[in-house]
Amino acid sequence: MSEFLESVSEAGAGPRDRVVLPPVEQMGREVWSLAWPVILSFALDSILSLAAMLMVGRLGAEAVGAVGLATQILGAMRAGIGAVGTGTVALVARYIGANDRDSAEEVLKQSVIWGVIVGTLVAIPVIVFAHPLISLFRVKGPTAEMGARYLQVVMLSEPFAGIFFMCASALRGAGDMRTPLWIGGIMDLLAIFLNYALIFGKFGFPALGVDGSALATLAVLSLGGLAFFWVLSFDGMVLNYRWERMRPDWGLGSRILRVGNPAAIEQLVIQFGFIAYVAFVASYGAKVVAAYFIGVRILALSFLPGFGFSAAAATMVGQGLGAGDKEFSRRAGWLSMRMAIVMMTALGWVFIIFARQIAGLFIDDPAVIVNAIQFMRALGVAQPLMAIDWTTTGALRGAGDSRFPLWGSMAGFYGLRLFLTIVITYHHWPVAWVFWSLVPDFMVRSSLKSWRFRTGKWMTIKV
C-alpha cells in the first residue's frame, strides 16, 4: 500500500478528514509505487500467455488460431464484468480519498456480488452458442471445433472471474496494488504448470492438447477468485469483505454500473469490432491468423507500462478528486502519461529490432514468422500513441468520466482501422497493410482523449 494512504481510517470508521495527498515533489515516486506492482502483475500474466502460446504453438497453427479466436470472443464477453470493475475503481478511489472506508468496503462487497451475477448471465449464452460465435471469424474444420470447445470450458469460470477481477479492481482503487500482484503471481505459476501438464500429458495427467489449456484456465480463475475472497475476509487489509448480508444492493449496484457502463460498452463495441477485424485477417488464411495472435501475445509485453500507469492515473485522479484537490489529479494524470510514453517507446523498439528472433521462438513456420514480424513492427511503432491512449483513459475513468473514452475509441477504431481494413481486403492488398491500419487508429484515440483531459471537464463529473 502506498505511503500516503496509510492515513486512511481503520475498519469501522466513517468519513472524517480527507486523506493527506503527497507533495508535488514526491508525485513521481508515488505514481511509480502504484504503477510497478500493476506492471509486474500484468507481466506475470503476459508470461503465462506467452508460455501457454509457446506450448499450444507446438500443436500447430490451427491450435494457435483456435485459442486466439476463442480468447478474442472471451474479451468481448467480459465487457459486463469490465463495467463493474471500472465503476468499482472510480467509487472506491473517491471514498478512500474522502477517508470513508466503510463506504469503500460496501462498494467492494457489492462489486463482488454484481461481478458474479453479471459473469453468470454472460457465461450461459456463450456456452450455448459457442460454435456460431466462432463461425463469425469465417473459420472451419479443426480450428473452429477446438476454438468452440476452448470457449465453452473457459466460460464456466466466469462467476469466479467476477470475484477475481472485482477484488483486484477495488484494491487498486484503494491504492493497494500489491495484494493483486502476489495472488495473481501464484495463480500464474499454477497456470503454467497446469498448461504444461494437461496439454502434453505430464505428471500422470492425460495429454489433452487445446482442451488441456482450457481446463488449466478454468481451474486457475476459479481458484484465484476463491483466494481473493478468502484473503479479503481478514482484518488488516486496506479493504475487507464482510460475509454477512450478502444481498444485492440495487441502489449502489446501479451507481457502480452507471459509472462503468460506458467503459463496458466501449469494450464490447471494440471487441466486436475486433471480431470483424480478425475475420478480415482470417480471409488471408490460417497462417496469417496464427501470426496475428502470436504478435498480440508478444507485444503484450510492451503494453505493460500502459496498464500500470493507467491504473496509477485512475487511482490518483480519483483519490485527488475525493480529497478535493483537482490540481493534484491533473498533475498525476499528465505525469503518468509521460512516464508511460518513455517506457513503452523503449520496449516498442526492442520488439521492432528483434521481431524475427522473438517470433521464431513460438513457431517454426516461415510464413507465420514473416507475417508476425509485420504485425509486431506495426504495434511497436504505435507504442507512444498507445501510452497516451491508455493513461488518459485511466485518468478519465478514475474521475468517473468513462463516456468520452468510448467515443474516442470508436472514432479511431471504426472511423479508421476497420474502414481501412475493409478497403484493403476488398482490393486484396497485402495483409501487412491491414496490420499497419492500427497506427492511424491510435493517432485519433490519443489525440481526442488527451484533448479531453486537457479541457478539465472531467473534474466536474459526479459519481
Tags for this model:
463 residues; 18 helices; mainly alpha; 78% helix
Structure report:
With 463 residues, the chain is mainly alpha-helical. The chain has one domain. It contains 18 helices and no strands. The longest helix has 37 residues, at 286-322. It is globular. Mean pLDDT is 87; it is low at 1-15.
Mind sketching the topology for me?
Elements: H1 27-57, H2 61-77, H3 79-97, H4 101-128, H5 130-135, H6 141-155, H7 158-173, H8 178-200, H9 210-231, H10 250-282, H11 286-322, H12 326-353, H13 355-359, H14 366-381, H15 383-398, H16 403-426, H17 431-436, H18 438-455
Helix pairs in contact: 1-8, 1-11, 1-12, 2-6, 2-10, 2-11, 3-4, 3-7, 3-10, 3-11, 4-6, 4-7, 6-9, 7-9, 8-9, 10-16, 11-12, 11-14, 11-15, 12-14, 12-15, 15-18, 16-18
Quick recap of the structure?
The protein has one domain (30-460).
- Uncertain ranges: 1-15
String of helices and strands: HHHHHHHHHHHHHHHHHH
Largest sheet: none
Mean pLDDT: 87
Q: Quote the distance from N terminus to C terminus.
A: 24 Å
Helix content: over 70%
Overall spatial form:
globular
Helix-and-strand structural type: mainly alpha
Strand composition percent: under 5%
Number of helices: 18
Number of strands: 0
Number of domains: 1
Radius of gyration: 21 Å
